[in-house]
Task: inverse folding
């Protein structure tokens, strides 16, 4: 009985885990005067990434206050870590859009743990 | 007719503007080994802030990768800049929960500009 229960759980659990998307949060430090070019770069990256398997959605946030440390923050959803890593690895090799000199990125994957 | 139209627009527009919440994004640098205390501090801040006028919602994100620069990122919605500033100013005076030594915050307000 115990073994049957474990077998059933093993069948159910991967499906549940897959249903939980991962959240990419990527704060950008943008050099002064290059805000418009940074958005153009982001748009090219988005156009590439949304063609890849596992992409769910993305939202680019711009600070209201001009002195914010992170002028832009991208928040995206991916189906899982593997598809996100494969897509960004492919992008690094294939995206021809020129990166912004001096722009810094801090991308990481997150789960929501409290509300 | 033109004046009537402008009068109607002036009645409608402030309501539309108020409907656009502002988004607080607050990345935290948490000293190693103090992750649990940082969450306890965040919970106390949330309990205080959700009692204040203008609060809409909040979500605490924890990085899946242990080497992420920002171990925690809070994303909250407020009705507008004024209520957010009043609430955080009140919190700085009244919240008794001890802050975490060495924890760094980069809070700023954002609009979504691209999807």
Result:
């Amino acid at each position: 009985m115990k073994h049957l229960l474990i077998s059933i759980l093993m069948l159910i659990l991967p499906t549940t885990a897959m249903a939980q998307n991962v959240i990419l949060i990527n704060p950008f430090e943008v050099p002064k005067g290059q805000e418009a070019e940074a958005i153009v770069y982001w748009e090219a990256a988005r156009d590439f990434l949304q063609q890849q398997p596992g992409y769910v959605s993305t939202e680019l946030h711009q600070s209201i206050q001009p002195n914010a440390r992170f002028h832009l923050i991208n928040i995206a959803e991916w189906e899982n870590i593997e598809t996100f890593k494969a897509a960004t690895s492919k992008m690094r090799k294939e995206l021809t859009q020129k990166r912004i000199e001096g722009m810094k990125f801090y991308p990481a994957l997150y789960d929501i743990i409290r509300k």
Observations:
- The longest strand of chain A covers residues 55-63.
- Helices of chain A lie at 2-19, 35-49, 81-94.
- Chain A touches chain B at residues 22-23, 25, 27, 39, 42-43, 46, 57-65, 68-70, 73, 75, 81, 106, 108-115 (CB under 8 Å).
- The first helix of chain A runs from residue 2 to 19.
